Amino acid sequence: MMGSRFDYQLAFLLFLFFCVSCIAIYGSQLTSGQYSEGLGFVYRQILFYFVGSGIIAGVMFFDSDQLQRLSWYLYGFGLFLLGLLIIAPSSIAKPVNGAKSWFNPTSSLTFQPSELVKTFVIIAISHVIVKHNAKHTEKTVKTDFILLFKIGLTALVPIAFIMKQPDLGTALVIIAIATGLILVSGISWKIITTIFLSITLVAVTVFYLVLKAPNVLEALGFHQYQFGRITSWLNPEEYSSGEGYHLLNSMKAIGSGQIYGKGFGNSQVYIPENHTDFIFSVIGEQFGFLGTSVVLSLFFLLVYHLIKVAMETTEPFNSYLCAGVISMIVFHVFQNAGMTIGLLPITGIPLPFISYGGSAILGSMLGMGLIFGIRYHHRVYMFSDK
Length: 386
Known about the structure:
This protein has 386 residues and is mainly α. The chain has one domain. The chain has 14 helices and 2 strands; from the N terminus they run H-H-H-H-E-E-H-H-H-H-H-H-H-H-H-H. The chain has helices spanning 2-5, 8-30, 35-59, 64-87, 114-135, 141-163, 168-184, 189-212, 214-219, 228-234, 245-257, 279-312, 316-340, 358-383; strands spanning 103-106, 109-111. A two-stranded antiparallel sheet has the order 1-2.
């Protein structure tokens, strides 16, 4: 029966995220006394969750075989949307803060296709790994590099489109997804370790050049303004009127909340658009360390539940889907919470299920639909004659 196959635990966790989101969004708007505007954001967030629930209901009925057959169609559709966004006129894709990441035909209707592309990439890479491992049962260094190339190419194509917007935050999420799937793909750890050490060395070198020899990077074609997020992250006080403004105010807000917070709707530190990417700062100021601990604990429970689903499923493709969704959520949470306290540079990454935004909610719900589907069809396989 469907009741025994529906994942009530995951549904309950999403309901808790929904409650936290509505409370935090409304509280963020009370900061400036915008009671009616705050209710407007909450009503729209409720609508986004309602539509997202419909997406879950639709996606969960697709089994692993059907998803694999659709994987390249979904991937191609995602690339089509990203390509269309690049060539679309400003009347329907107006740049926001220098990034052309949204279709916005009206002021009240916007859509960010890259939020859906994240999940499409998870499905496509999972399909690539399953097909490769089925074909190459005898693993060698050559087959491992071939798989690594396939995964890299599948991830790099949408990243190239996204960086044309440009949207570094979303590109980093897709890199995190690909990284997580590489770790569980069966590729030799000797190869993985060598590659990751090389990447770390390159990253450290870039950071050093940004701080000590930016002229070298400029000679390679980079521009000074592109170093702003790193320099302002490391020394926000020096850039308090520019790049470091959000970071300083975010840390002030969270720090001033102390243990118990200032109370619902009682914020004294101004952070622009605090109901979106900086919703964690609002929670920290109004509900303190206890409030942020509750939020992070919810994410811990969510990830723990997804790991359980991955371990219980009998199909490799489903395990890879879980790994991809886990990688996406963990990176989102780590990056978003980290940037609000100065642990990481600021990027335009929302807090999953909590930040205001239709595209982000629908993208996250699409990923959850995959998990609901795994549990739903897992019960079918357990009690069937197969």
